[in-house]
Amino acid sequence: MKEILKVITNNISPLSEEEWQDFHQIWKPFSCKRKECLSPVGKREDNLYFITEGLQRIFYEDQEKEATLIFTYPHSFGGILDSFILRTPSKFAYEALTPSKFLRAHHDDLEKLSLKHAGIAKFIKIGITGALAGVLERQVELQTFSSEEKFRKLLNRSPHILQMIPHKYLANYIGIDPTNFSKLINSIKL
Questions:
Q1: Fewer Cβ close by (within 10 Å): the C or N end of the chain?
Q2: Whose CA is closest to 100, among 127, 128, 71?
Q3: Is 177 helix (H, G, I), strand (E, B) or coil?
Q4: Statement: residue 189 has pLDDT above 70
Q5: What is the SS3 assignment for 100?
Q6: Domain spans of the chain?
Q7: Three-class SS of 50-66
Q8: pTM value?
């Protein structure tokens, strides 16, 4: 598992051998069951996750509506980043949609290493900037794209997602009723 973490980390921002030796030691195996909440609303996010198996989502929920914001899956990082970085209670929940396995690192350990190693601080900065870029791109999609365009963009970004994620969550992510999602799939040539 840590070999894959090294490849992904180096694709974001290469670490020296010394930095890697310190960095990989803080990542601990963790697993959870289907529908288990990894980070509930109102609790501060203390961990950054590296997904090795399974599928998860970050969502917002109030009494009337639920909005799926992000999907995470193998070989990506996950967690409620704003809560993790700002050390504030989360407004969002992070839930496993399938049984899942991770490597996870605690905030305090990452913070210590980012102060000790410039390469790790750079890796964190580039990772956060990439996450922000993704959020801004998603905001443009939500405000300017039709349902069909949002769906096509999602499939271009993550072509495997249609087989991985239950359609009710994909419909929610796109912002349409699940019954209309079937019509959308049938109307688009994939």
A1: C
A2: 71
A3: coil
A4: no
A5: strand
A6: 2-136, 145-190
A7: EEEECCEEEEEECCCCE
A8: 0.88
